[in-house]
Amino acid sequence: MTRRSHRLLAAAVCSLAAIDLTAVCAFAPPSSSSLLLSSKSSARSSPQWLPKPTTTATATVATVNKSSSSISRSMLPTTDEPANSLLYNILHTPTIWSVLAMTSIVALLVLWEETIDNIRESTPKAIIPVIDSMLAEVGGLGFIGLFLSTVVTGGPLGQIVGRLSEDYLGDEELLLEAFEFLHTFFFEVGILFFIVAGVCVGAVLEEVNKLSEISELALDADGDGEVTLDELADALDVSCMIVDTDGDGILSYEEKIDALKSTASNKNFIETIIDEKSMSEVDRAGECLVARERILDKYSLPQEFEIDAYFANIFGENLEESVELSPITWLPLIPLIALENSVDLSRDVVSASSSNAFESCGYFFATPWVFYPTIFFQGLSLMWALFNFWKMTSIKKMLLPTLVTDGVNGCAALLPPRYKIDEIRKEFNSSPSIFAWGEEFFTGGGAKTSPPRNEHEELFGAVGAKFESVYLDSMRFSTWLCVALIVYSTTQIVFRDVAALYLHADVGNADGLVPELIVWIIFTASAVFQLSLAPTTFLNFCFVTSVEEYVKKDIIEEVLEDKGSIFDKGRPL
Prior knowledge:
By secondary structure, the protein is mainly α. It is 67% helix and 2% strand. It contains 23 helices and three strands. It has helices spanning 3-25, 32-35, 39-45, 57-75, 86-91, 94-121, 128-153, 158-169, 174-217, 229-236, 253-262, 269-277, 281-299, 307-322, 333-345, 363-366, 368-399, 422-427, 433-442, 455-458, 467-503, 510-544, 553-562, and strands spanning 240-241, 402-406, 412-415. The protein has a three-stranded mixed β-sheet. A hairpin with a 5-residue loop joins strand 2 and strand 3.
């Protein structure tokens, strides 16, 4: 096994340890910490479908045992072998079931490793570091779970935490169970975040593949292997205007400037978002090919230069950074989850899986100091995602060369990007109103402390020269917040309220149950919509930080070397 495989296996062990520790411990004798569990704690942590206590503890135990035996007779395989037969003795040997459980865990580890190996083999070289980074982060989450299980909830710190819980919350086990619930929640958020990151990786790979395919099949009309400006103009149905106004057959700089001004877009915030979200695959590929023409012309690159390979490397570098999670990443979740979880803890409920969880139903909606901050966080998350999407799109349109067809001679003409025109650039503002204040506040002054170094960076608005690092973090935190909102809203509120309605259960606040369910379904739908913007936002971010003044010389050299071409390293970029 290679060293890389050892690292992957170690990450898998850490990840699965937190999940399977409870199952493994089921075969161990009771520990001192398990003996401390009170009857109240046991009732709280038991599943919703178990029968409630009747009159005495004896009656409760009898009812549970009866229910359990009924489940076992109806759902588990039985054997008619006599009590002294070999099969009977094997099936009733605890060691056998312990071996089977551990074997299943090992099988899952083997399946995990084989799956990762297959993914790595089928993934382009530029994206492999992203997979490694995701595996390292998953391993870190698993280690946290293992530490909490062995040191805090079931270890030497358990008694200290239990004493604090009893002194300040009135129940010895409440804080311990809260630790277990919150770790499980954090783990779920982390896993879903990496799933979303995986979706972004898939979208990136699909974009790269479609870019190459579309440029070869849909745009190359004559099939000569090269997409000309005229073929691009025909495929993209570009505007037809009189560019050569004096009719001399030569497009002067002034004529190009006048044409650019006449094609300037006046679309508002919402229209820009809708147009970008509904853009066709051919139009998106056309944008990249227009950018390629600009790079070829500006830096005298050979025709062998492949823009899809160039962007694939850009995507890989940025994706690797975007999936790295630091401890600071968890901080924005603390106020939101603390508010929501306080509704449960104030009613001696740990989470939606507690037996008395229905006592909190309706109170998430009926508690003003929880409901209104939740609306604020939801609105902030939505506006944050929309602004990221709009800003990347607006800057991209300023950096794109404009392809038009001359109405006089019918030839396609590639006009310079709009940001090259002083009048248009000065009117452009990617940090309107309150967003400018926010960018300056969160970047320690923004453009005031890190002023733009060129015309390209002037497009970044109030954030100034810090744009690349700041907005990579912005997209990561925005996605992280959306994932957290989805996980908590669904697992702790929506599913619980649906179960209460379906079972006709007694709830804490019946009047607030249905409004609560409707509102949190809307919250969840909003977060899902925000996540749908993430891939396009990321692709546009990669575009605006890899063209014009941000062209990556080292990646161009790598792409050309892969094609066997020679790049003049002395030529300035």
